[in-house]
Amino acid sequence: MAEETIFSKIIRKEIPANIVYQDEFVTAFRDIAPQAKTHILIIPNHIIPTVNDVTEQDERILGRLFTTAAKLAQEEGIAEDGYRLIINCNKHGGQEVFHLHMHLLGGEPLGKMLAK
Ligand code: 5GP
């Protein structure tokens, strides 16, 4: 069983978070330290620590991350201008929370894809 992170507590509503969407597969909430006007994290409800841990059994849930991103982008009014979806993995990817999450970033021009 994978180790819990703070995101499990957010899913169970044990700690406060600005949850914008939740269903049986995923939860989406605003990032506590937004890096763009819109910065939402979309996460599976069950713990998948990193992209390295995804399996074929997760395909339906992983698809839901994308359909949720598309729905939220519409709701946030950023779909037409565009946005960026990011999933960081491990040290080189800059992952800090080991519960797989998709960042939905937008609401302004985001600049170059990689800041080095
Ligand atoms: P990572 O670097 O792992 O891809 O991104 C982790 C993200 O989670 C960061 O953008 C960070 O601001 C966000 N985050 C970490 N702890 C919390 C929290 O307790 N609440 C919320 N809403 N976001 C968090």
UniProtKB/TrEMBL annotation:
It comes from Bisgaardia hudsonensis. One of its GO terms (molecular function) is catalytic activity. A motif (Histidine triad motif) lies at residues 99-103. This is Histidine triad (HIT) family protein. It comes from the Bacteria. CDD domains: PKCI_related (cd01276). Pfam families: HIT. Residues 6-115 form the HIT domain. The active site is at H101 (tele-amp-histidine intermediate). PANTHER family: HISTIDINE TRIAD HIT PROTEIN (PTHR23089).
